Amino acid sequence: DGGITQSPKYLFRKEGQNVTLSCEQNLNHDAMYWYRQDPGQGLRLIYYSQIVNDFQKGDIAEGYSVSREKKESFPLTVTSAQKNPTAFYLCASSSRTDISYEQYFGPGTRLTVT
Amino acid sequence: KQEVTQIPAALSVPEGENLVLNCSFTDSAIYNLQWFRQDPGKGLTSLLLIQSSQREQTSGRLNASLDKSSGRSTLYIAASQPGDSATYLCAVRYPHRDSNYQLIWGAGTKLIIKP
């Protein structure tokens, strides 16, 4: 089955610790995205990558870092510099040959930092 | 500034009713618009995508319309069922830098269908 997997589903961390969220896709998509979702707000773009070894900051990149060493993988690190890291994190991917640029989403990771 | 608004934030209707969810956007120069469904604690499922040149798209009991001139889209759900209960998100895609296209998201409408 083709799709996007995110792990873990739930993640708990102490304040001051860095944490890495996993995102893997087997859709052969070039572009991948990380979003943050908070209650009562629309999704906000953290980082995106259109090709391996390249990525761009989104609207709320501060306190986050990413890497894109493989086409299939786009891990997100939430650093201790992120002021309010508790949120639901969604990963998505899209094909650059799809002129609609439709994005496909993973199941999400809920991060709780105390 | 490009903004997307969904009103109401929550809606509760009896099973069997037809209903309309609204999405408005401030910048009419859209590339396309997409409606998603999100179940509690889950990822997003794409329902319908409307290109800027289209007026509507249909899938089963769902019909999405687009009126760029008024900056509005509606999602019509016919003969609602309890299984339709979810949050419905509207996202508008605009041309962006680096030949990329950026999605601007509404906050969603939480729909509850009462048996």
What does this entry look like structurally?
- The complex is a heterodimer of chains A (114) and B (115).
- Chain A is mainly beta.
- Chain A has no helices and eleven strands.
- In chain A, β5 and β6 form a beta hairpin.
- The mean pLDDT of chain A is 93.
- Chain B is built from no helices and eleven strands.
- In chain B, strands 2, 4, 5, 9, 10 and 11 form a six-stranded mixed sheet that branches. A five-stranded antiparallel sheet of chain B has the order 1-3-8-7-6, with no helix packed on it.
- In chain B, β7 (62-67) and β8 (72-77) form a beta hairpin.
- Chain B starts with a strand and ends with a strand.
- Classes of the chains: A mainly beta (114), B mainly beta (115).
- At the A-B interface, β5, β9 and β10 of A face β4, β5, β9 and β10 of B.
Distance between the termini of chain A: 36 Å
Largest sheet of chain B: 6 strands, mixed
| pLDDT averaged over residues of chain B | 94
The largest sheet of chain A is:
7 strands, mixed
Structural class of the helix and strand makeup of chain B? mainly beta
Structural class of chain A: mainly beta
Amino- and carboxy-terminal Cα gap of chain B: 41 Å
Q: Average pLDDT of chain A, to the nearest integer?
A: 93
As a percent range, the share of strand residues of chain B is over 45%
Oligomer category? heterodimer
Keywords:
heterodimer; A: mainly beta; 7-stranded mixed β-sheet; 11 strands; B: mainly beta; 5-stranded antiparallel β-sheet; 57% strand; globular
